[in-house]
Amino acid sequence: MTECPRPQGWAPMDSPGYGSTARRHATHAPIAIPHTLTETSAPRFLPGAYPASADMSVHGGHASMGERIIVGGRVLDEDGRPVRGAMLEIWQANAAGRYHHIRDQHDAPLDPHFAGTARVFADDDGSWQITTIRPGAYPWGNHPKAWRPMHIHFGLMGHGFAQRLVTQMYFPGDPLLPLDPVFNAIPDAAARELLVAKFDLDHAVENWALGYRFDIVLRGRGATPMEDGHAH
Amino acid sequence: MHTSPSQTAGPYWHLIDQPEWADLLRDQQGHAPLTLTGRITDGDGMPCGDAMVEMWQAGPDGAYGNGFHGFGRCATDADGVFRFTTTRPGPVPGPGNSLQAPHVTLSIFARGLMHHVTTRAYFEAEPLNDADPILALVPQTRRHTMLARQTAPGVWTLDIRLQGAGETVFLDI
Ligand SMILES: [Fe+2]
């Protein structure tokens, strides 16, 4: 590994266990630049123009198939401060492990009452919450009997373009987790653990849904100001 | 505090796609339109047909988010081509008293990318390029990978090579 993954603790772009990285990873190390206005500014997404939709468990007026769950947490920066107003874009497979996507041809049923997308915003405390269906695992052809663990995709827009993050949330106790090359490409166990939601009865609603907690930590707003002439 | 690691956007990110976001002028008036397009290829020269491309730029006044939204998102097509409709950004203040040449930040997310890669599109023949503090950090021999060329009136093209010969310069931001 010649490059220093960005930021430290992230998966290397060249991760041999994950076949698709082979011809898509850059062979040159990225060039560190100081954070300028370009990197410390970010587009503003306000719920007025970009409406929130927090409930994936109902679609077209009908309840989706599967186990309803509530997932919530906080968006923080690496100094522990809430990232107010951060936009979370969320997508996932249905309970049977199939995406409502034309290119997903997995032989599992589509649910006409599950679209699998949500958009929510972090409040002043950095908190957000969605209601959804526990996604199923699905095969992906990376190696024999390769199935992705249950996961939910998250995209976050914070306060600076350098804070942009796309990641995945996993479920505790999933037997596929130790086998997954995408998850395990993250070299650091503590960093991997950040992507595993916590089973959390505080998010559960009596006779309605169990709950999970998923906190997300973004880089600082001006993560690497160029004061000493080189960024980290 | 650890930051949450990135994971690939995968091949099904289109579920969150809003195709109209590729047109930054959709709710703007009075801006001269500019098309920013390019083809993304992998180390075999094969098109990246499942990528999500995001862009961020200043308005013509060189300010971010000052009336001009500046953010766009676009899916690549089967040929690996992305296409934004926008307007030419103005020069942006840089570190110290420097001035950055007009540029558009481009981030690419895709299956096989553990985290997104980021570069900038500058405009070929822009006089301010010579003094740009970020271009100055890029080896001369690779700078051309960040220079969009005018390929038709109002159309600027910057192809992106993720790996191999002519590999695009990516920035660690
Ligand atoms: Fe997925």
Describe this structure in words.
The complex is a heterodimer of chains A (232) and B (173). With 232 residues, chain A is mainly beta. Chain A is 6% helix and 25% strand. Chain A has helices spanning 37-40, 181-184, 189-193, and strands at 31-32, 58-59, 62-63, 68-77, 87-91, 117-121, 127-133, 138-139, 147-148, 151-157, 165-170, 198-199, 210-213, 216-218. In chain A, strands 4, 7, 12, 13 and 14 form a 5-stranded mixed beta sheet that branches. In chain A, strands 6-5-10-11 form a 4-stranded antiparallel beta sheet, with no helix packed on it. The longest helix of chain A has 5 residues, at 189-193. Chain A is globular and about 50 Å long. The two termini of chain A are 18 Å apart. Chain B is mainly β and 173 residues long. Chain B has a single domain (25-161), classed as Protocatechuate 3,4-Dioxygenase, subunit A. In chain B, strands 1, 2, 3, 4, 7, 8, 9, 10 and 11 form a 9-stranded mixed beta sheet that branches. In chain B, β7 (103-109) and β8 form a beta hairpin. The two termini of chain B are 19 Å apart. Fe (ii) ion binds at residues 148, 151, 153 of chain A.
Short key terms for the protein model shown above:
heterodimer, A: 232 residues, mainly beta, Protocatechuate 3,4-Dioxygenase, subunit A, five-stranded mixed sheet, 3 helices, 14 strands, globular, disordered N terminus, B: mainly beta, nine-stranded mixed sheet, two-stranded antiparallel ribbon, 12 strands
Summary?
The complex is a heterodimer of chains A (232) and B (173). Chain A has 232 residues and is mainly beta.
